[in-house]
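Most newcomers find our protein records easier to grasp once they have seen one. Read left to right, the backbone structure tokens trace the chain's path through space. Nothing more is needed to start thinking about how sequence determines fold. An example says more than a description, so a record of this kind follows:
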Amino acid sequence: MNLNITNEKYYDELLLVIKLFFSEDEIENLNLDFNVSYTFNNPVLETHFDITGNYNNGDVSINKSFSYSLTKEQINKFDKYTKRFLKIELYNILSSLTNTKLPWGSLTGIRPTKLFYELKKELGSSILAKNELINTFKVSPQKANVAYEVTQNQSKIEINDNLVDLYVNIPFCTSKCYYCSFISAPINKCAEYVEPYITALIKEINAVKNIINKKNYIVKTIYIGGGTPTALSAEQLDRILSELTYPVNEFTVEAGRPDTITKEKLDVLKKHNVTRISINPQTFSNKTLKEIGRAHTSEDIIKAYKLALPYNFSVNMDLIAGLSNESFNTFKKSLLKTLELEPDNITIHTLSVKRTSKLSEGEGTKGETNEVTKMIDFSYKTLLENGYKPYYLYKQKNMVGNLENIGYTKPNKECVFNIDSMEEVATILACGANAISKRFYSLQNRIERNANVKNLADYINRIDEIIRKKEETFK
């Protein structure tokens, strides 16, 4: 591929749009030149774009010029809006060239709702924001309505710089799923790291507690994620949770793998006032579970769920649309089985082909776009009919059909941490390997990030350096 752009800072974003339409092999035959120029006539900045090129070894030629007038506010964010308009016009060209319309149009970012809120502020209403997604960004009316509905159900957003969420990462699992790109490692293959990791993690947690005290922060939610935190023993969980004594209304521990859930571990979670857990089927097909690398059966899912019921946790269950060799009917059966269990939250993920996963290396298969689209549309309709509301939404790169992930909730059972994390409207203090802290400045609507190292050995060996960097971010 030959992709020439007058300013290289737009290259990566434009390449994301191109990848929505073409495979890696097809991209090799795509040649495009982008030229950006502008003239300033106070107070209007006229920005001119020219796109020329060819596709399919010159069989199809492209020649397009267009211009936008930027407002004073947009002039102050010239690169942001130039990138936006370039992506929209490139989408229009490629959509016409390939006779293809994508559900999320020109959007490639992971947070469509963040753009929705921005448009709502600019235009003055949610309806105008929805129309702008449709008319300008070429989002389908159905998906624009999904974004609208999600924002309508996010009443629990609370902007307060003194409130923080506390996140702890446990990067261990019982096995590696074929679609997983997390740093999570099968616990039996890295047993020598588990105890040193817990020691380093507790040291970082205590450093974060000092930051909370010095800044007079109030912890509003705690979230223990992974990996699968319940891959640890009950005693190991107890040691970690004993460090987290903040009186929060929402305390989540991911217990995603049913083969890791025991009465002893559930007792530990209840002892430490955990209020919410996840038990994640991904699918109720035993054949698929084996193919994707899960070390449990659908029967184990139901047993684990019934074991947890007397503890009165709010429970989330995940399903994935587009798993290896699954048809629409297979997914439909999994969704209906999940509904029979009546969890408080259900999250529907679209399979994403992540760069460091086994799937990206050729192990396993993904669903056909049309089938996966049917799965996502069916889940949205069915969950709404059964009293669930969509309350958070995000996208990932290389998702089948350029679709999305949606979290659904029963009334008043939302996970506040999920909303804060997805919308980036709160400070998150994060501990553990690959954990990313975010300091939120509400007046500037700005996020400052502090990322921990990913590698387990590096995290253990460099914990003092990690703590110093975190203290610098929050000084």
About this structure: DSSP finds 17 helices and 17 strands in the chain. The first strand starts at residue 2 and ends at 5. The chain has a mean pLDDT of 89.
